[in-house]
Design a protein that fits this description.
23% helix; 10-stranded mixed β-sheet; 19 helices; single chain; alpha+beta
Length: 779
């Protein structure tokens, strides 16, 4: 009788270090085996012995090196087990040796040098996969990383050097990072086993893993044969998980994603609307495409004016108008309608656009706009809710634009200028009644990105409109967009530059503090004080440097308590006598001598309570481009995938804009506002999220946070404090996260300046939310 697979097999559990358990195993024929890992007598993980173990682990032969297994448990989980054993799956055949907590291995069993066996790691969530590996593990240089379902390759990526933020999350310095986007087709309600391998066939730790996504959770729950009460409970549980463990799919899957989630809720309206197609001469094919999308609207109570050309339809609602009669015909048509809209020739509307927009106008909105895609090959433009600064820079309202006729001061003006007219009438920066429809209901047809400024053939009235724009938004200058660049604008200086106290906490770190102070000495702000808050420094050179600072007129405040970022600032703030404060970390270095003027100007924009800077890593990548609420279930920074000079997602890295929060690493605000909201919460947020909480408290009082793209500084984040890499620090960080989620739970999934169609996992603005958050109940 032949031997069963596994009989006569051999293997060794070699060790467990840095959260990783490793060894080798093979059957008599040299084939790999499935290995069960037992923790204190219970099977806790499975792995296949087909890994290539690093060269510095002593093994009997090269064949043994090809039959390694690795379990990536992590330090915390590994520490919970007193004894680990390994055996061949479903057999009593145990591998040689076992591991006891705190055990010292014989030299023959341990790596000969500093361990390099933790050479790769894979993490996955839903359809996003990321990981890293050490390049020394490959003799032939970097390889591609591939994902397989059964024998089919479903994704691949070329690794790149890790960024600082990835090192902060556990990737070793000098390792290579990869990110894989699994296709939307896996979200079919079935379970799929995914393997991640290098192009040389080496499977990475953490692979294989199982993907199971039911698509739209609520629809899936409705199909289950369970009691209604159980369906309600399951829906609540899935909704909570989606909020705090968000999933996403790549922009490449946009067509399939749009087909599944792109149809808005059905609405009805009785309003009659005038739609202008044009408003200038355009090729017949472009006009025809726009007209056909208008004829396909589910809402039928409309009338249309088309610039010149032959009548492309016999529909009596469509009126082609020669150029010589355009102004007169437009005035006459406007006099018959209370609601108007603009559809640029060549662009098309989704069949639900008029139904949805007019429904909101009927419910009290004064103006509506929607998200847009295009034919440029880039990602759709998923827009923020109304943001006056974005409106000044980009054609925010140009897609799906509908408004009340009474908002148009000049009935004969170019309809492409109607959004600007309407906003000016509504109050400029303080405009109200503007509703954003978070669905792609407009497709731009000229081959340019949706955020590219519109080209206008007629410049008539441009000077008058610009004058009104400057006055309404209190601008010093506004320059219309050219080519692919956003519009440029600047604001007036305040009547007098208010005095600012710059507050810099520090503990030792002389070189960081010195760089910070020296960069501030170049700042051109006329009325600036600098306070250094010493939190128990002990380094003699740091203490000597602070003594010199005091001699030079810089105030040094001794704060002799356990580190608590919030409490430190709350105590110091009671001593401040200036109108404005600037919070600054000691690892920040000003790169632009005008940075403080930019932030103070931003603070004087209407209803702005906090102004934050553009912060860069020392390698020139963006460290902070504003804060997104809900990222990774809490809050995170915008722009970590962008270089300083990149445009970013639809020009976001280049334009000043409203965000839900800015980082206190460099933040300017009014002293009175800080005190009126109670400062930072020193109990709930001693280290992290105190700035997010502070900005949200300002928002609750009707004040905005503004990210200023012109104010550029360098931030070597956490160089002083270090990372949360000890059990005590991780526990504190978890407590702060839970406090933020408990206090601001609704706000964390409804950031008005971050579109519900965009991802909340990985990096911001990088993928499509799966499913969109408006599917989970937000309209």
């Amino acid at each position: 009788m032949s031997k069963q697979r596994g009989e006569g097999s051999c293997g060794v559990l070699l060790g467990a270090e840095q959260g990783v358990v490793y060894g080798w195993a093979m059957d008599p024929a040299g084939e790999p085996l499935v290995i069960e890992l037992e923790g204190d007598g219970t099977v806790i993980a499975l792995a296949r012995s087909c890994m290539v173990l690093p060269a510095d682990i002593p093994l009997p032969s090269p064949q043994h090196r090809q039959r390694g297994f690795i379990f990536h448990l992590g330090d915390e989980r590994l520490a919970t087990f007193g004894c680990l054993k390994a055996r061949i799956a479903n057999r009593d055949a145990r591998l040689a040796h076992s591991w006891l907590q705190g055990e010292i291995y014989p030299a023959a069993m341990a790596p000969a040098a500093a361990p390099d066996h933790l050479w790769a790691a894979v993490q996955h969530h839903a359809l996003a996969v990321e990981g890293w590996f050490l390049p020394e593990a490959f003799a032939t240089g970097p390889e591609r990383v591939l994902a397989f379902v059964e024998h089919r390759c479903i994704a691949n990526a070329e690794p790149r050097p890790v960024y600082p933020q990835e090192e902060a999350q556990g990737a070793p310095q000098g390792s290579l990072y990869f990110s894989l986007s699994l296709p939307l087709s896996l979200a079919d309600g079935q379970r799929h086993s995914v393997k991640v391998l290098t192009s040389a066939g080496r499977e990475l730790p953490g692979s294989p893993f199982e993907v199971w996504m039911p698509g739209e959770a609520q629809t899936w729950v409705a199909t289950l044969p369970i009691a209604p009460a159980d369906k309600t409970l399951l829906s609540l549980m899935l909704g909570h998980r989606a909020a705090h463990e968000p999933a996403s799919v790549p922009f490449a899957d946009y067509p399939a994603w749009q087909a599944r989630f792109g149809t808005p809720p059905a609405h009805q309206s009785k309003l009659r609307v005038l739609v202008v197609i044009g408003p200038h001469a355009a090729p017949g094919a472009a006009v025809s495409a726009s007209l056909q999308s208008l004829l396909a609207q589910r809402h039928t109570h409309w009338e249309a004016l088309v610039w010149e050309g032959a009548n492309l339809t016999e529909d009596p609602r469509v009126h082609p108008v020669p150029a010589r009669r355009w102004r007169k015909a437009l005035r006459e048509a406007l006099s018959r309608h209370a609601w108007v809209g603009v559809l640029p020739a060549g662009d098309v509307w989704h069949p639900e656009l008029l139904c949805m927009g007019l429904h909101h106008l009927e419910q009290g909105a004064r103006l509506t706009y929607c998200d847009a895609d295009d034919r440029s090959g880039g990602p759709p433009w998923f827009k923020p809710d109304w943001c006056p600064e974005t409106f000044l820079s980009l054609p925010l309202l140009a897609h799906g634009f509908l408004c009340a006729r009474t908002l148009l001061a000049d009935a004969a003006a170019d309809p492409l200028d109607w959004p600007t007219q309407a906003v000016i009438t509504l109050g400029g920066s303080n405009a109200e009644g503007i509703v954003h429809l978070p669905f792609v209901l407009h497709t731009r047809g000229d081959g340019l990105a949706a955020s590219t400024p519109l080209k206008k053939a007629d410049a008539t009235g441009a000077d008058v409109l610009c004058s009104h724009l400057l006055q309404s938004f209190d601008l010093k200058h506004w320059q219309p967009a050219t080519h692919h660049e956003p519009s440029r604008w600047s604001v007036n200086d305040p009547p007098h530059w208010p005095e600012v106290t710059v507050i810099i906490p520090t503990r030792d770190g002389e070189s960081l503090l010195r760089n910070c102070i020296e960069s501030l000495s170049e700042t051109d702000y006329p009325r600036m004080k600098v306070w250094v808050v010493d939190n128990q420094s002990t380094c003699s050179s740091t203490l000597a440097y602070m003594n010199r600072l005091e001699a030079e007129g810089i105030r040094v405040i001794r704060w002799p308590h356990a580190f608590n970022y919030a409490a430190l600032h709350n105590d110091v703030m009671r001593m401040v006598g200036t109108e404005l404060i600037a919070l600054m970390n000691n690892d920040v270095r000003a790169m632009d001598r005008h940075w403080l003027k930019h932030l103070v100007r931003g603070l004087h924009r209407p209803r702005v309570g906090a102004a934050g800077a553009k912060l860069l890593w020392p390698n020139g990548m963006v460290q902070h481009g504003g804060v997104v609420l809900g990222l990774h279930g809490a809050a995170g920074h915008i722009g970590n995938l962008w270089r300083a000079e990149d445009a970013g997602y639809h020009q976001m890295n280049r334009i000043t804009r409203t965000v839900s929060a800015v980082t206190a690493a460099c933040l300017v605000m009014r002293t009175v506002d800080y005190l009126e909201v109670g400062g930072m919460d020193a109990s709930a947020y001693p280290v992290a999220f105190n700035d997010v909480d502070l900005c949200l408290k300002l928002k609750a009082r009707g004040k905005r946070s503004l990210w200023c793209a012109e104010a550029v500084l360098e931030h070597a984040e956490s160089m002083s404090r270090g990372q949360d890499n000890t059990p005590a620090r991780r526990a504190r960080a978890a407590h702060e996260l839970q406090a933020l989620q408990a206090h601001w739970q609704t706000a964390l999934v409804n950031d008005p300046y971050y579109n519900p169609n965009l991802n909340l996992d990985s990096y911001s603005h990088a993928r499509l939310a799966m499913p969109p958050r408006h599917v989970q109940g937000k309209q």
